[in-house]
Structure formats: C-alpha cells, structure tokens
Amino acid sequence: MPKKEQNKLFAIPQNQNKLGILFIFLYSLYKITRGLIAIFLYSALTQKLSNYWFYIVLGLSVLFLIVLVFSYLSYKNFKFHIDYKNYRFVLKQGVFTSNTLDISLQRIQQVYVKRTIIHRIIGVCSLVVESAGSSDKEIEIKALSEDKALALQQELLALKAEEYSVNKELSNDLENEVSNADKFEQAEDSLSKNNVEWTYKLGLKKLLLLGLTSNYFRGLGLIIVFISTVYGQFSQFVDDNPYWKGAEEYLEQEYTSVFEITLVLVLSFFILFALSILVSIIETILKYFELKITKKKESLEVEMGLKTNTKWSLNPNRVQIVTHSSNPLQSRLDLHQLQLALIGSDDQIKKNSLSIPALTLNKLLQIQNFLFSVKLEKGEFVRMYPVWLFKRLVITTLLLGGAFFLNYFVGWFRIELLASILIPVGLILFTLQFFIFRSSKLAITPNFVIKSEGVWFKKRKYIELYKIQAFSVQEPIFLRKRKLVHITFHTAAGDLRFNYLPKSYCAQLNYLLYRVESSRQAWM
Q1: Is the pLDDT of residue 412 over 50?
Q2: Cβ contacts of 55 within 8 Å, gap of 6 or more
Q3: Distances (CA, A) of 303 to 20, 69, 342, 356, 360
Q4: What is the mean pLDDT of the chain?
Q5: Three-class DSSP category at 491
Q6: Is the domain of 432 the same as that of 485?
Q7: Residue 407 and residue 269 in one domain
C-alpha cells in the first residue's frame, strides 16, 4: 500500500534541474576534448595545423552547436518518477531512441549522491541508483538540486524498506495487525528517530600522512605509464628534437663506467620515487578530501571526494566482505583502512568496493561492530602447503637465469652490470616469496571465514558465514598426488580464494556448510 497522497513527492514524471542542459553540454565537451587533445597537441607541436585554422574553428563551432542541441534534447526527453502503487522506479530517456527503465524498489541495492567538479561549478549533483541482478550500467540522474537529490534518495530507501516490511508480513499471514497506513507511519517515525550517534571527519593533516604512507608503487606505475604514453604519442617529435639528441649524446659520452651508469640509475629511481610520493598525496587528497562518516542507528553514511564527491548510505546486509588493512608506518600513526565489498552484479563487483581510510583503531572497531552481527572471534589459522613456496622459488630462479643467458647471447648489458642488478633483485624476490608464504593464512571460526595476507601492506579479510552463497574446491592434476586443493568462497560481492590447502581440510567445509544452511539470517 502506498504512502499518503500528500507524501507522493515524485508521482508525476519530471525532468532534471534546468541546469542539467549546461551540465550535459559541458560533460560532452569534456569527453570530446579528452579524446582529441593528443591529436591537437601533436599537430600543434609539429606545426601541421597552421594552414587550417579557419576550417578548425568552423568545425569546432558546428560541433559545439550539435552538442548544445543534443544536450537540450537529452534534457527534455529525460523524465523519472516513482510508481507508488506498484513500488517501482521508472525512468525514460533517449534522443533518437526512447529507452524506458522500470525497476522494482525491492531490487535497489544502493542509492547515493555524487558531485564532480562540473557539478560543483554549476551547483547541482547526481543521484545514482544501483540495482541487483543486472549487468547494465546503473541508473544515474545527472543534474538535480542537492535538496531534491537527498529527498529522492530518502524516498526510494524508505519505500524499499516499507515494501519489504509489507511483503514479509503478508508472507507470514499475520492477522489482526494495525492498518498498512499505520505501519507506514510507524516506519516513518522509526526513520525520523534514526538519530546521529557519532561522526568522524578526516582532516588535512591525516590526509597528508595517508598520502605519505600509502602505496608508492602505484604512483610510480602511473608515472611510468604516463611517460610511456606521452613518448608514444610524440616519439617522432622527441626523436627530431635537437635538445633531446644533445642530452642523449652527453649521457653516452660522460657516463661510461659501471659506477657512473649505476649512479644515474639510482638517482633516476629516487627522482621517480619522490614523484610517486607526490602523485600518491595528490591522488589521496582528490579521492578522500573531506571524508565524513556519520553513524546512525540503522545505517552508516560516508561522504568523501574532491574530484567526485560521493555520499553513501550503507546497511550491514549489503556489506559482504570486510577487509582491514594497514602497513607498519600507518599502524604507528594509528591509521587503518576498511575496504567494504558491496552487493552488486558481476560487472559491478570492482566498482562496488568502498574504501574508508585513515581510521583510528577505536573508530575501526566501532564500524566493524556495526557491520558484523556477532563479535569477531579468534580462530586457528592454517598456512599454504610449502609446495607453493618451492614452486615460486623455482620460477624466480628460472626467470633470473633466463635473463642472464639471454643477455649473454644478445649482449644488451655488460656481465658486471647485469650481475650487479640481478643479484640484489634475486635476493629481494626470494625473501619476498618467503614472507608472502609466511603471511598467507586462513581460519574458519563458528561465525567467520578469515583470510590474512600481505608482507608490507597487511590485509585481513572477514566474511560472516551466513553471507557465503557457495564454496568450490579445485584439485589440479599436478596437486592430486600431494592431496592438495584450492578453495574458493563465493559471495554476492565477489570471491575469497585460498590455495594449496591439504585435502583433509575439506572436513572443515562440511562444518561451514552446516552453519550456512542452518542460519536463518538473510544474506542481503
């Protein structure tokens, strides 16, 4: 039964905010510019556009006009409303082809508000609705006023809760209860009493500390990818540049000994490492700026982001896998991270992973206590069988030996220089494999599956048993003689896998299956 008539705020099909025309126009121009900027830069640097400026300006003017007309038509043809009678959310869109999306409110998994830089400049925000059981892109209303977006978010979540409540009572054939209208009023009163219990805000100081102690190798990888991409786009211009050729000739003439070449490589590494730290800090600020966590009675609201500000409203049932991670530096600074794997379709699993960084240990435990239906338990951990370590050491040895013999025949580097590189790299790789083996552990407790892993950046993953949908056991041919298996636990938000376990450990899975089947808790 729907809400009262006066509460049907979104019963009539309506458009986005009128500023949506400007947003669609600017966003379309941004995507077009991003796709063409490399071509224009290359052409400008090589002076291949000097005789065609008139045609370029004319073409851009026509393009702007087409994009503007498209933006207006897209705005006019975009309408949404809530079917209160049937508990459905309906959206119609399309310029040349009309497309109607009609989803049951019960299938909605998440509704959140986000704001990009363009949103902030214009003064609007975007509302995203994610549903279960679909591999298509989620519904996104790209331009709403903040008040209207928050009102629609609360309306959808409240109606979803009401529909679930009504269906549950009907299925149990409960009689002699108060009227449905009274039930909905009680649900509204319950939502209004959902007062804030505590809030947590991430300041700039902790953001900087997080950036300084985060994953430098990711920043280093981004720099290398950027340099290789730019060089690939402008290789001809670089190769023909006299300053670049002069720099190459200077390095070839002045740095010839093994010591000098090693020194250049070490200095280059430290410069790239410093840049990677800078990239890590910038990326951290863009992603987690003004992080705010609000704990309410029945939900956890998370807001963060400078480039794209996003507001999430989480309930424990949607969170399937909880990962607590930190490294030694962050632990000493009391900075801990939670990564929450949320229910989504197969194509949304990576996208439905929410990271909450820079939490104090006390605040992290408070969030975990809210997300878990029972208290965490200590379990007896088991490690992978040592054959994993032996296999990794053999592969590493073959790779290093292959690099040495390949260089012997090809002659890329002198033997002394190659040895000075391969020996320390080999020692690091061997040591790393050993510590990876030591840190990988699995435990099954009466209520949890717990996996521990990581050498420097240590992670511990938790799955409550009742949220496991299935588990599978793989027994590769080369492991059958040793009676070893790989085990994978499947949830609605992804899988947790552990390899090289003794086959006898499968007896634990029988107990796990019993706990899952006997549980009456809903997994979502």
Answers
A1: yes
A2: none
A3: 23, 34, 16, 10, 17
A4: 79
A5: strand
A6: no
A7: no
Strongest mean pLDDT among 192-196, 217-221, 281-285, 325-329: 325-329
* CB neighbour class for 270 (10 Å; exposed up to 12, middle 13-18, buried from 19): exposed
Q: How far, in Å, CA of 112 to CA of 301, rounded?
A: 10
CA 61 and chain centroid, separation: 38
**pLDDT over threshold 70, residue 137:** no
Count the alpha carbons within 13 Å of 163 in the hemisphere toward its beta carbon. 18
Q: In this predicted model, which residue has the larger pLDDT, 149 or 187? A: 149
Same domain for 258 and 120, yes or no, is no
Residue 417 φ/ψ region, left for φ over 0, alpha for ψ in the -120 to 50 degree band, beta for the rest: alpha
Q: What is the Cα–Cα distance from 180 to 168, expressed in whole angstroms?
A: 13
Q: Which domain holds residue 458?
A: 315-383+440-518
Q: What is the pLDDT of residue 453?
A: 94
Closest CA to 399 of 419, 422, 379: 422
Integer Cα distance of 216 and 211 in angstroms: 9
pTM of model > 0.90: no
Residue 123, class by beta-carbon neighbours within 10 Å (0-12 exposed, 13-18 middle, 19+ buried)? Answer: middle
Sheet with strand 494-502: strands edge to edge: 470-474, 484-491, 494-502
Among residues 73, 75, 80, which one has the least CA distance to residue 12? 80
198 occurs within a structural domain: no
Residue whose token pair is 């979803």:
160
We report the CATH number of the domain holding residue 364 as 2.30.29
d(CA 373, CA 354): 20
Query: Which amino acid makes up residue 240?
Result: D
**For residue 376, what are the CA distances in angstroms to 147, 363, 448, 472?**
39, 15, 8, 25
Confidence band of 153 (pLDDT split at 50, 70, 90): confident
When divided into structural domains, the chain yields a total of 4
- Asked if residues 143 and 19 have their Cβ atoms less than 8 Å apart, the reply is yes
What residue spans of 240-294 are helical by DSSP H?
242-254, 258-288
- Residue linked to tokens 């197969």: 346
Q: Where are the beta strands (DSSP E) in 120-257?
A: 125-131, 139-144, 196-201
- Which residue(s) pair with 458 in the sheet? 326
171-213 pLDDT, tens per residue?
Answer: 444 344 434 444 444 444 444 445 788 999 988 888 888 888 8
Give the pLDDT confidence of 458-511 residue by residue, as tens digits: 999 999 988 888 888 998 888 888 889 999 999 888 899 999 999 888 877 877
Q: Do 94 and 48 sit in the same domain of this protein?
A: yes
497 and 416, same domain (yes or no): no
Q: What is the pLDDT of residue 442?
A: 94
Domain boundary among 144, 165, 192: 192
397 pLDDT higher than 70: yes
Q: What is the CATH number of the domain that holds 104?
A: 2.30.29.30
Rg (C-alpha) for the chain, rounded Å, is: 29
